[in-house]
Protein: malate dehydrogenase
Amino acid sequence: MVKAVVLGAAGGIGQPLSLLLKLNEVITELALYDIVNSPGVAADLSHINTPAKVTGYLPPNDGLKNALTGAHLIVIPAGVPRKPGMTRDDLFKINAGIVRDLATGIAQHAPNAYVLVISNPVNSTVPIVVEVLKKHGVFDPKKVFGVTTLDVVRASTFTSSISGSAPQGVRVPVVGGHSGVTIIPLLSQISPRHEFTHEQIEALTKRIQFGGDEVVKAKDGAGSATLSMAQAGARFSSSILNATVKGEAGIVEPSYVHLDADKEGGSQLRKTPSGVAKINSLGDINEYEKKLLEAAIPELRTNINKGVSFIADGS
Ligand code: NAD
Ligand code: LMR
Structure:
């Protein structure tokens, strides 16, 4: 039995993400939780002829508890999205509390599950989940992930739009966090190898770092990326399931994960591509990428501290 749970399942990301998870035949039970409309979304998806039994939950009658109990994998796209002119950090005020409360439910009812955090600002919401799980004594650093897969997906698309190669075949490691300069594409490690001019590398890096803004601007007040995010979230979920349920080896997915300060030479930067089994090093990075890393560290540190303080003293 493999139970997957979506928290925020009736939203712009939640609905298409739930659809894609319903199509994943490894999942036998799909629990959809939201503060509105989750039973409707569940009823709709339940007519699709794939194995997952779909159930919808609202907060009353222990809805969160019933959704979470027995979960193997939990994906969290709950919370408000950006409008033009906002940063992801502007969402902290509303989303921090939402994520804290959902993480408390996870600590109580699904402490062994893999937790995939989509809600922004990811750089701070992941530390919030980590601190809540630590507080309850159930934190496992190999089970909590900030989903940065959309940056990886964009990097493949934008890179291939310059090189002309097939986007599905291009793999670009993108490490760091998930906002502006904290997003660090390692274009020197593209596979298969590409030769770009320095100008092309600078332009690509900027486009990958600020790709989210393109969608926010185009949606013009109606939210941010939802469909591409759903695909990215489903891809990351599928990688976790393939590794942990099917036992497939050699799967590598970049993600924003917790690293202890002492293992990072004093830095609290969560920056490495991570597998469930092992966190890889950054590999050989060039001088340009070292500068990107230096630019990312202060902002990441601020974002991380903001999440940690929110749980430590509620501020
Ligand atoms: P949305 O407003 O369309 O959907 C959010 C859903 O969360 C709504 O259905 C809402 O009812 C639900 N919700 C609110 N409070 C809740 C609670 N306490 N418990 C359960 N559900 C709750 O927003 P969206 O476009 O789906 O975006 C969701 C979040 O994902 C935003 O914070 C956005 O910034 C973020 N996002 C992250 C990435 C990424 O790469 N990590 C990409 C795109 C969007
Ligand atoms: C994205 O990268 O598309 C998301 O983080 C949403 C946003 O606010 O840009």
Summary: The radius of gyration is 19 Å.
